[in-house]
């Protein structure tokens, strides 16, 4: 007859190793506690499924990068950028990487969160609901579309 293992031998879900490295977890924590008022303001709209019932996370690692905000179920990344990001080749490489990983990327300027708060939220909802389905490049918005794949084929 098999003997039940004591609790200390069985382990628990909290004993399981994380899928993310301790370094990435630490870096994400530092980024979440940064001093960016625009990100804090947008997070108030995205957290707790407040925007259309979609779940977002902050500072999610995707390969070597960290997404400001990500909706895993819809594979959407939302980035807020300051003026240092104008015509950034680094951001273009980053967007391409995330698209290759299956994520669409939506970029806004920090100032837009304060000046056009409702428009930013409506644009995010449009992307989540599939109403944005092609690349958009404008002075106040950049959307890099990643077609959803079904069985290895893009839709």
UniProtKB/TrEMBL annotation:
<feature type="domain" description="DUF559">
    <location>
        <begin position="25"/>
        <end position="129"/>
    </location>
</feature>
<dbReference type="Pfam" id="PF04480">
    <property type="entry name" value="DUF559"/>
</dbReference>
<protein>
    <submittedName>
        <fullName>DUF559 domain-containing protein</fullName>
    </submittedName>
</protein>
<dbReference type="InterPro" id="IPR011335">
    <property type="entry name" value="Restrct_endonuc-II-like"/>
</dbReference>
<dbReference type="InterPro" id="IPR047216">
    <property type="entry name" value="Endonuclease_DUF559_bact"/>
</dbReference>
<dbReference type="InterPro" id="IPR007569">
    <property type="entry name" value="DUF559"/>
</dbReference>
<feature type="region of interest" description="Disordered">
    <location>
        <begin position="1"/>
        <end position="20"/>
    </location>
</feature>
């Amino acid at each position: 007859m098999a003997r039940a293992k004591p609790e200390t031998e069985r382990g628990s879900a909290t004993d399981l190793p994380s899928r993310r490295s301790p370094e990435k977890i630490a870096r994400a924590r530092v980024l979440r506690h940064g001093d960016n008022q625009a990100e804090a303001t947008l997070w108030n709209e995205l957290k707790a499924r407040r925007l259309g019932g979609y779940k977002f996370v902050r500072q999610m690692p995707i390969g070597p990068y960290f997404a400001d905000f990500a909706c895993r179920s819809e594979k959407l990344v939302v980035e807020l950028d300051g003026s240092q990001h104008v015509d950034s080749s680094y951001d273009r490489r980053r967007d391409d990487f995330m698209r290759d990983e299956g994520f669409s990327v939506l970029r806004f300027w920090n100032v837009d969160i304060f000046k056009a708060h409702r428009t930013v939220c409506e644009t995010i909802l449009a992307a989540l609901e599939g109403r944005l389905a092609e690349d958009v490049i404008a002075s106040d918005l950049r959307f890099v579309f990643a077609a959803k794949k079904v069985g290895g084929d893009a839709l």
